[in-house]
# Entry
Amino acid sequence: MISSVLPSYSRANLRFIKGEGVWLFSEGGQKYLDMGGGIAVNCLGHANPHLTQALKDQASNLWHTSNLYHIPNQEKLADNLVQSTFADTVFFTNSGTESMECAIKMARKFHHSNNNLEKTEIITFENSFHGRSLAMISAAGSEKLIKGFEPILSGFLQIEFNNIEKLLKAISPSTAAIVLEPIQGEGGIITAHPNFLAEVKKICVEKDILLILDEIQCGVGRTGTLFAYEQHNITPDIMAIAKGIGGGFPLGACLATERAAKGMGPGTHGSTYGGNPLACAVGNAVMEIVNNQEFLNSVKDKSLLLKQKLAYLLDKHSNIFEEIRGVGLMMGIKCKIPNIEFVNAGFEKGILTVPGGENTIRLLPPLNISNEEINFAIDMLDKCASDFKVKEG
Ligand SMILES: *Cc1c(COP(=O)(O)O)cnc(C)c1O
# Structure
């Protein structure tokens, strides 16, 4: 029998009805440690009291007005993002895909408004992920995303990640922008080499190309700095964010310098819900907690603990695990067994992890996870891995 819900996801047989911090509770009353965090979305855990209060307060005052009017919450969040980043201006959206759409449109419009009409091509990288719209599957260009949905959009060119020579060869007078994830998330937690981002930036400046970062997964404190680019000593021209900024409420944003945004005047872009009062109330509440040096330092400390413990697991279960990688609380474990088997074994033990590319499992827990909960997660992963040994032996 066909499901009432379009079966475009192959879903685990789990139904959650309540959450609290890093914990989820299923219909059947079982308790799960959520190390996936809704794929890096629930950055402050489930039912966070500060976020819940902000949403409740806003909900009893005003839900929606449209962007025909100024929205005080939206202006406050934009000011905060501008003060805390490279950006001078912010466009709000409801998702990562939409933030990327705005980024690409803005880059094309920038060159158009400079009368550089040939500059339309966007360079992206293999193994990247930027969303599921037609433009964003065209951007990532992977067979898996585009098969059967052709014709895809022209104007995107994918080259090998972390390879400057190939990038230089691919650049032409028609290159408008280079788009990259500082840490590829869906691709399997693959970090841009520190020099790579610096060199890409240099090339962009020299050749009048805009640098667009996709920090939809790695942004908002995930890597121990507010945004990942800060650790590469560069700034982008445009940056797409989403996921963590809403803490579970649909919210995204496209941040830009005044220069890069010069073409985006009245009537050039829009969104009915983008930057809606409810979403921005939550976004402000997220920033109140995450945009704080002490909090960000605590993410770094937890990352250190998690990395040390994962190194121990790698050592102990070298027949199951191949490599540990990642930054902050965005960690990947490359597996020797099929990753999905390990994720499923976790479900049985009561721990949620997320499969990623290159046969990895991803750990993207809430940023306020406690040391105790990290130790608990490691114990559970340890037990899962030990069970595999028994099966094999
Ligand atoms: C999740 C994600 C997207 C897409 O975001 P949606 O909210 O699903 O549209 C784009 N880029 C990256 C890096 C992501 O992790």
About this structure: Residues 74 and 280 are 6 Å apart (CA to CA). Residues 95-97, 100, 129-131, 181, 185-186, 214, 216-217, 242-243 surround pyridoxal-5'-phosphate (CB under 6 Å). Residues 16-48+293-386 form a domain with the Aspartate Aminotransferase, domain 1 fold (CATH 3.90.1150.10). The mean pLDDT is 97.
